[in-house]
Amino acid sequence: MAFSAADLQRKHNLEGAPDPFPSLVESPQPKARTQSVQELDTESQSAFPSLASAAPAAVAAPKTAWAAARKQTPVFADTFTIGRIDLSNTGKDGKHATLGEVMKQVIAKYKVKLEGSANQKTGQTTFHIKADTQKELEKAKKSLQALLSPQVTLIINAPVSTIATIIGPKGATLKQIRDQTGVRVDIPPRNTVVPNGNGHTGQDDEEEEMTVPVTLSGPQPLALEAQALLNQIISSKTSKTTQRVRDIPAHILPFVVARKSVFQAAAGPDSVELSLNAPGREITVAGDREAVVRVIDSIKSTIEHYTNNLTSLKISIPKRQHRLLTGKAVDEIVTKAQCVVIVAKADESSDEVTIWGQSNDLPNGLSAVMAQANSQHIHEFPLPGPIAVSKQMLTYMTHIGYPRTLINGHPGVAVYAPEPSVVEKASILNIDIIGNKADVDSVVRKVSELMGKLLGATQEIQVDWLLHRFITGKHAKKLKQLHDAHNVLAIFPLEAAEQSTVLLVYDPFSANASPSPDEKTKHLEDVAKEILKLAKDAADVKSQTISVEKRWHEAVLGKGRTTLNAIIGEDKTLSIKVGAEAADPSGEDVIAIRGASTDVDRVVKEILTIVESAKNDEIVNSYSTEFDIEREYVGRIVGAQGAGVNKLRDQLGVKVDVSDEVDEKEKDGGKKKKAAHQKSKVKITGRKENVEEAKKRILAQIERLADETSEVLKIPSQYHSSLIGQSGKYAIRLEEKYGVKITFPRQSAENGEGKTREALKADEVLVKGGKKGVAGAKSELLEAVEFEKESNNILKFTVPNRAVARILGRGGASINEIKDETDAQIDVDKASDDSSLTNISVRGTKKAVAAAKAAIMAIADQVTEETSATVVIESKFHRTLIGAGGQGLKELVKNCGGPEDPKLQAGLIRFPRPGDAAIDEVRLRGEPKLVAKLKAELEKLAAAMRDRVVVAIDIPAAQHRALIGRGGQHLNDLQNRTGVQVQFPGSRSYGQVGEAENAADLKDVDAANIVKVSGSRAACEKALAELKDSVKPAAVEGPSSTVTVPVKFHHVISQQGGFFRSLRAYGVQVDHSALPQKSAVPLQPTPAEGNGSARIDEPEEEPPFKWEVTANYQDAEQGDSTWTLKAKDQAGLDRAQKQLKEAIEHAERMSHVGFLTLPDRSTFPRIVGSKGANVARLRNETGADITVSRENSTIVIIGSEKDILAAKDAILRMTSAPGGRPRRTHED
After folding, report:
1. Sheet containing 488-491: order of strands
2. Could you say which DSSP state residue 513 is in?
3. Integer Cα distance of 334 and 344 in angstroms
């Protein structure tokens, strides 16, 4: 029985292993089978090769295509099998093609030899294909597979991090896969990616990176090939991974943590990183994928082991001792006893403790737990008062960080305040103090002392929490003033808590805090009134609930509550509860707003607007349109990494999808094959008007692209840098102006073409864009080239090597000056060793080039024939020859008839530099006559310096300044007269002069007195004689005496330095063994409690003055200071002693200090008088010391009680206006 290809397709399932060479010999009627096959294709044997048996009985075989093929054997061959042939994608007009017709199409199109055979048992069809080239063979093979294989759709969940690699630069990788396999690859837009799209469940330990479903559509074998290529890319990018082990039981977690080294060893040589999230009972492992898997398996097996082998023991331990069984103590117990201790939560009343471990370890674990629980002394300090007062005290202590203060002051002691969860439920609040008993007792005393001060010192007031930010922000200065005036601290709760209770505390740590309960209450009430008044004036708070269906709540909240944050504003304090948060009895279709009235009204309006817009969006965003564009424009429309469509999305709020569309009728449709895949479909979704605008923009862009042209301009490479400009600014300006792309060649390759995407030569510039823009850019570029040709004239010439140094100048000064003056660019090439000339290139305008060349040649002409010479001079003499700032060399060149211009002098004499081999050789270069003179003069100077000696002389350091003179005048005169150099101690060259030859004679002399003289011996002797005559004999020390003076009298005696100035008039100097550290003016006493009201809200008639008297020296420093009086003669010393004795007696009489405070400073000029005349007169008349403040309106009077009263009365009389007019007062 014979079967056609269609019969084989319908009969067999065609599943199973492929058989590349199926045998058909088992058929009982081979001839009939051959005849049947030939009847299926009567047109040509070459179009449908025989499917008959391979038996030699087929005599007609030589007439087949294979027989003809033996004349010229193709070079390339391949054999492949298709499991199930699907002809549904072939043919036309709804009629499927036969297998023979398909093979005929492939043979005709790709010029290959093709043979096929089928296996009835396996349902496989094997094809053997031959071609002249490998390329044609691959094309024919893929075409046949595409035509005969079923169309399938595969989905690969690719991690988001690999999408960029799959797409490749500008879609290159994705395009390569599509071209290689002919499979359609669809990647959804980024904004449609759903988190956890990789299908991971909550129990999966993989890092939950978002994945993107990549869809492959095409013939089965080609789709599988594309799938393998994509999997290869994904695996190469995901060699690193992160996995987590979550929900580790609390009693097993410490055991797992203790085995960290075991897990790291499981990773082997690969690198992994383990991190612990203790609160979440989670371990994260990151690193090489294989190593991470090994470590995760090790952790899971460890958890499983402990889960199956641990048992527990429960005991009761007082709750206060639980603190000793947490934190590091758990790790210590695990290490010591291989057991874990779990205590009850802090807010639970249970005192149960559970010990986990293996059965044989539990006794040791119990012992370790009991030892740890009793390792330190614990004191539970109950906060006094009702629970409300206890909470207030705890809030204050927490606010000021008092527990931390106690810990810092008592190392080794731990102080624990109750947990917030405990505070809400407890009826008694305890502070746990743990440590050594002696230290704990000390801390307990401090806490008890603070609690005593806080009793009756707290008060709570209710201020709407929405106003807290306003009060603490705008009135922060006012709150500080209240604290300074009343010692009351206002503690506002955190804004997130939305609590309206404000705690007021009479600060016990304030320096002037009163222990009186009445005072505390009074100050608390005063501050409470002030804060409540601020709250009342701050804002009018109101609440409003609006009805909004639950389905619109997401629009109001926005992604990540961004829209809600925008509604509230940055500096606004508002409470907005959405849905269930509002806890409204009517249900969840509400939004509750609370805040300042104006803000609430604004928010309600904005929310309603957003809801209305969301309702409209639901209607208008359903609009979409589709249209086709040429595929060649897709890349430009989409943009690099989707930049083009993302821009449309951001600007117009539309979604743009671009997909390849293939006309089914054109698939493999003979001559129309070229048209396949040439069109791409664009779908835009969003508001109708926005969609139409986006379509308009895309079509306009395509129109511009269709108008695009390119032109290559021939521009010499020497002008490219000028046309590009610094950082490309000129080229960018042209691109933006004309809407074109300008490409310059990069560094040339070996073949002379630039290394750019376009094959450009070194002198080519590509301009691409619209025709009009290209023409404009071309015109402007060519104009710029002409300008550059005019301004970039290049002139090359040579100069003698000897003139190069002069042309360049020191540090390039000369050449830079020529550049600045001529605006030309000058390049000086380095001369070769065998050449006497140096090449110079000058670039610029014709005028600039000519001017620069003239200036350079002028310098070169000045340099005549040069000679060089060398003078050997010891390096120790170099500094002296050079002189300060090179002045010595300048004078030397000038004296030898050389040039005076420093530029021309440069290079004549060169001293060796540090690192030179010949450190004693001085090189001369220049005109022969000048070089000869310089050499002779240098040798003469060197000979003189070799005869130089250094002699020292003892001159008291106190006389050095006089010998040097103002500006060194005396010293310079001496050196000029004698021809020596004199170095005084401390000068920079003192140590460089060298050791004096008579240093041994002066070894016992103070080094500060030794002066060095250097020069010829005769000159040194002459200078020493003059210096000796100039030295004055030491002055005879005058008489001196010491007087003991109390330190507290110092300021009164010194009279701000006037006393010492008067002693210097007698020739007496004073030294002190000690000086006072406190101010000369005593501090004004603070007013006594109850001496008047300082409240600004209780006006009182202002007194004309304020008078306060206190004892002098009561807070003064104690002790004595020794005053040493040094005089020129005995008479001056006697007068100074007498004056000091009277001053001490006067200071003893200054027993009182009066503080006279006037309402303002308007009368101070009258009191002081011209240059202090009135104050001086009052001092003489009353005997009191009077100090008028420059900072406030207080006058300080010091003296006996009688004297200060007299001075006060005199001052008050002066403040009265002349003629009996009343004193002017200041009214608020």
Report:
1. 458-462, 501-506, 488-491
2. -
3. 18
Positive or negative CA dihedral for 1145, 1151, 1156, 1161? positive
Q: Round to whole Å and give the CA distance between 1066 and 1061.
A: 9
Residue whose C-alpha is closest to residue 564's, from 600, 616, 606: 606
Q: Of all helices (H) and strands (E), which one includes residue 415?
A: strand 414-416
Kindly report, residue by residue over 326-363, the tens digit of the pLDDT: 888 888 888 888 999 999 887 787 889 999 998 898 99
User: DSSP characters for 77-137?
Assistant: EEEEEESS---TTSSBTTBPPPHHHHHHHHHHHHT-EEEEEEETTTTEEEEEEEESSHHHH
Q: What's the mean pLDDT in 438-464?
A: 88
Mean pLDDT of the chain: 79
Q: Which residue has the tokens 């001159």?
A: 955
Which residues, listed in sequence order, are joined to residue 462 by a DSSP beta bridge? 501
- Would you say 1023 and 970 are in contact if contact means Cβ atoms under 8 Å apart? no
**Which residues lie across from 80 on neighbouring strands?**
127
Single out the residue of 647, 652, 578 nearest to residue 621, CA to CA. 652
**Tokens linked to 364:** 């040791």
d(CA 664, CA 341): 72
Contact 1137, 1041 (CB under 8 A): yes
**Least-confidence region, from 133-137, 335-339, 904-908:** 904-908
Which pair of tokens denotes residue 566? Answer: 């925008």
Rounded CA-CA distance 479/530 in Å is 9
Report the C-alpha gap between 565 and 557 in whole angstroms. 8
Burial of 693 (0-12, 13-18, 19+ CB in 10 A): middle
Q: Which two tokens stand for residue 577?
A: 């509860």
Q: Please provide the size of the chain in residues.
A: 1228
Which two three-digit tokens encode residue 1217? 């206006």
Decide if pLDDT at 290 tops 80: no
Q: Are 308 and 356 in contact (CB under 8 A)?
A: no
Structure tokens at 654: 């539309």
Asked whether residue 299 carries a pLDDT value surpassing 90, the answer given is yes
What region does 655 belong to: left with phi over 0, alpha with psi -120 to 50, or beta?
beta
Cα 312 to Cα 321: distance, rounded to the nearest angstrom: 20
Hunting for tokens 């002055």 — which residue is that? Answer: 1035
- Give residue 213's identity as a one-letter amino acid code: P
Q: What is the pLDDT of residue 284?
A: 92
Q: Is 840 exposed, middle or buried (0-12, 13-18, 19+ CB in 10 A)?
A: buried
Collapsed DSSP state (helix, strand, coil) of residue 410: coil
